[in-house]
From TrEMBL, chains A, B:
This is L-asparaginase. InterPro entries: Asparaginase_II. It comes from the Bacteria. It comes from Pseudothioclava arenosa.
């Protein structure tokens, strides 16, 4: 099965651009709805950070380090590198007796407008704390200290990444057919869209009083939903959609237009990938699926911002709109 | 016929994302090569600015105002709002006895890094001169003064836009089935990808000593090719690809992933649209077609930047590459 059209951009009453993709909603009984090819193999990229954080929690490393839910939210984040994100990761590393130089995520300018402006206008250089994955890496370093691994914790055969791969494959219930190096240098393991949705369903249904893995999944989901601003940042889709859901769901984006949702009250997991990697479409699609599942109203500002029923130009003139393709969501 | 895959993004030996589109190469004898659906109807957006500038030149308005090739390059530009662009349009308006307030393009922050930083760090506001279309609008105002139209020159029934529509339909040799309002508030007329390529072939073959329209088309092509930095800006695809072509071709991007090329020495025109609107793919695709036509080497830095044979992450680790889809270019 091939990708199906999901998101359309209209101008002057004519379809101008269209994004196709794959999406799966997995409920307690299995697949409840699917579009495109559920078996399409994708890189989940940052949408799987809560899976990459499972060993951190289930191993006891998080408890041993006394990590808070705020820190676990940062471990699952693709944050904007704002003041709260940078200081949160900096103090976390300091608590571990480590520093920015121990990170292996690399450096990029922060997406946070205020911090980006501060650095730009002061001619200051960003550091690894600004990297959107620095919280995930602080989590890797916390696990690494607990299990006594070496400093190069992003290498494929390092105990930290071996533990991540094992947890990932067990939760998606697939043997990963490919792996790639992510933007932050950590390995990223491929899985099917259905497998990613099934894993998110496991997180949604996880019993806080259950196995070490279930308890870890439940706590990570709660941490993400409780601190939307730490998982992404001001104005970002994950932050605004989770804030609008008021703690009822955790959602997470991944590079190249992947998006997931975890809905504990419905024991439902959602995964989607827009095949062209267009983030505007993955954000619109996850917003539409949250509406379909009854978590948000179509008119909610967090939905309307991603799926604009009216688009205007620089002078405020109406130019067109974004629409769901026929048969999607 | 539907869109065909053109540009692939690979990671860890696996196809991660793919962009599909339509493309046509039109030569002296008609269509020489096509991918996807040549009859697909698209909005050319800013890729048709040289057609929107035809009435300005063929009416004699440009000559009456003593416009230089630099000014005609700005009339065909989606410029970055850098110092040279802003001052060029400001002095042009001043020569007309007009000012920034006479523009109807609206305001957005400039893409030019230096000017963007200057405004951001001085808390200064951008103006309509920074709008990437301000040169096109200065051209509209020059034509408008010549024909004595009213101040609202972007309205569909204004003499300026009626002249633009007539020239557009004559050169694409189609009756435009739709029109939309562009980001800069000017009407944008739909045409087929084949019609856009045919129009670019007319520009490529236009005789400077021929009809008023041919002379206008030839001069606009020469102006674009002669001043790549005015047509876009530092680091931009149009600028770097035209500079690499050393005056042998004019290329122009349009929003939502449209790209055209005019190759006078081959009397060839090229038009393409990536259906998902992904600019990274339209830039890669036009670069590949310029290589196919023998204007650029695959290894040219301007090509490699748009079609990277190696992609690296923040730490310089190789993560994958961009590839042409089988059967394209």
């Amino acid at each position: 099965m091939s990708a199906m059209p999901m998101i359309e951009l209209w101008r002057g009453g004519m379809l101008e651009s269209v994004h196709a993709g794959h999406a799966v909603i997995w409920g307690p009984g299995g697949i409840e709805a699917a579009w495109g090819d559920p078996e399409a193999v994708i890189f989940p990229r940052s949408s799987c950070k809560m899976m990459q954080a499972l060993p951190l929690v289930e191993s006891g490393a998080a408890a041993a380090a006394g990590l808070s839910d705020r820190q676990l939210a940062l471990a699952c984040a693709s944050h904007s590198g704002g003041a709260a994100h940078v200081s949160g990761v900096a103090s976390w590393l300091s608590d571990l007796g480590l520093a920015e130089g121990d990170l292996r995520c690399g450096i990029h300018m922060p997406w946070d407008k205020d911090e980006n402006k501060r650095l730009t206008c002061s001619e200051a250089a960003p550091c690894q704390l600004h990297n959107n994955c620095s919280g995930k890496h602080a989590g890797f370093l916390t696990l690494n200290r607990h299990i006594g691994g070496g400093s190069e914790y992003v290498e494929l055969d390092h105990p930290v990444q071996r533990a991540v791969k094992a947890a990932f494959e067990e939760v998606v219930q697939e043997t990963s057919p490919h792996w790639g190096i992510d933007g932050c240098s950590a390995p990223n393991f491929a899985c099917s869209v259905a497998g990613l949705a099934r894993a998110m369903q496991f997180f949604a249904a996880a019993n806080p009083e259950g196995s070490a893995r279930e308890a870890a999944a439940a706590r990570l989901t709660r941490a993400m939903a409780a601190f939307p601003e730490l998982v992404a940042g001001k104005g970002r889709a994950c932050t605004e959609l989770m804030a609008a859901c008021k703690g009822r769901a955790a959602v997470k984006t991944g590079a190249e237009a992947v998006f997931i949702a975890i809905i504990p009250e419905q024991k439902r997991g959602i995964a989607l990938k827009i095949v062209d990697g267009g983030t505007r479409a993955s954000e619109a699609a996850i917003a539409a699926l949250l509406v379909r599942c009854g978590l948000l109203e179509r008119a909610d500002p967090a939905v309307e911002k991603r799926l604009p029923s009216v688009q205007k130009n620089w002078r405020g003139l109406v130019t067109g709109e974004m629409r769901l393709a026929p048969g999607f969501a």
